[in-house]
Design a protein that fits this description.
6 helices, 35% helix, 5-stranded mixed barrel, alpha+beta, two-stranded antiparallel sheet, 215 residues, single chain
C-alpha cells in the first residue's frame, strides 16, 4: 500500500508523508555598516553619473545605437570659452579653450555607469575629461548646468587639423562608418568580459560567419 500524500499548499508539488521539508534559505543578517555599504554599491550600479556635454561624433544617433543600443536623453546646449576643431587623424571633433568662443553641442543625461565607461573607451587618449558648465541653447538667462566634457590635451596641439571647425557632413561621409563599427566592437568586447568560455567561442564563430557572408 502506498504512502499517504499531503495536499500541497497552493498547488505546490506533492510530498510523501514523513518526508522532511526542505529548509528555507535564510539570508545572512548584515550589520548596519555592511548594509549601508551594500546599498551604496547597488545605487552606484544604477545611478546617473551626471550629464556629459558632447559636440562631435557622439551627437549622432548612429554612434549611440552602436555603443549602448539606445538613444539617450539629449538636449541642445552651448558651451562658452571654447572652440571646436578637428583631429587630423580620424576626423574627430576636438574642444580647445578660446576666449570668447562658443560651441554648440548636446547635453546627454541618464547614462548608467556601464554606459559612461563605454563612452570613455571610445574616446581617444588625446582627450581629457573635465568639469564644465553649459546652458540650454534656447535659455539666454537661465542657470548654468554643471556637467563634464572631453577637451583636447594641450600637449597634442600638433595633431589638430588647422583652425577650421569640425564638419559633421565631412565626418559622416568619410569617417562615420568606421567609427560606428568601432563603437559596436567596444560594446561587444564589454559583453565578452562577462561571458563564459563557451559563450565567447559562440560569439567568435558568429563574427567569422558574418565576415564570411560579407565577402
Amino acid at each position: 500500500q502506498g504512502l499517504a500524500r499531503r495536499r500541497p499548499p497552493q498547488g505546490g508539488p506533492a510530498m510523501e508523508l514523513g518526508a522532511v521539508a526542505p529548509t528555507p534559505r535564510v539570508e545572512p543578517k548584515l550589520d548596519p555598516a555592511s548594509r549601508a555599504a551594500e546599498q551604496v554599491v547597488s545605487a552606484a550600479k544604477h545611478a546617473d553619473w551626471g550629464p556629459v556635454f558632447v559636440y562631435g561624433s557622439m551627437t549622432l544617433p548612429q554612434t549611440w545605437d552602436a555603443l549602448i543600443g539606445r538613444m539617450p536623453e539629449m538636449q541642445a546646449a552651448k558651451l562658452r570659452g571654447h572652440k571646436r576643431r578637428t583631429v587630423a587623424c580620424g576626423g574627430f571633433a576636438a574642444l580647445v579653450e578660446q576666449r570668447g568662443g562658443l560651441v554648440i553641442g548636446q547635453l546627454v543625461r541618464g547614462l548608467l555607469p556601464a554606459e559612461r565607461r563605454l563612452l570613455d573607451r571610445v574616446v581617444d587618449d588625446g582627450f581629457e575629461l573635465v568639469e564644465a558648465s553649459v546652458r540650454a541653447l534656447d535659455d539666454f538667462e537661465g542657470e548654468e548646468i554643471q556637467c563634464t566634457t572631453y577637451v583636447w590635451r594641450e600637449e597634442f596641439e600638433d595633431a589638430l587639423d588647422g583652425e577650421a571647425d569640425w564638419d559633421v557632413e565631412v565626418f559622416t561621409e568619410t569617417c562615420l562608418q568606421e567609427f560606428v563599427e568601432m563603437c559596436a566592437d567596444v560594446r561587444e568586447a564589454h559583453k565578452a568580459d562577462r561571458l563564459s568560455d563557451e559563450e565567447l567561442k559562440a560569439l567568435a564563430m558568429s563574427g567569422r560567419q558574418r565576415r564570411a557572408q560579407a565577402i
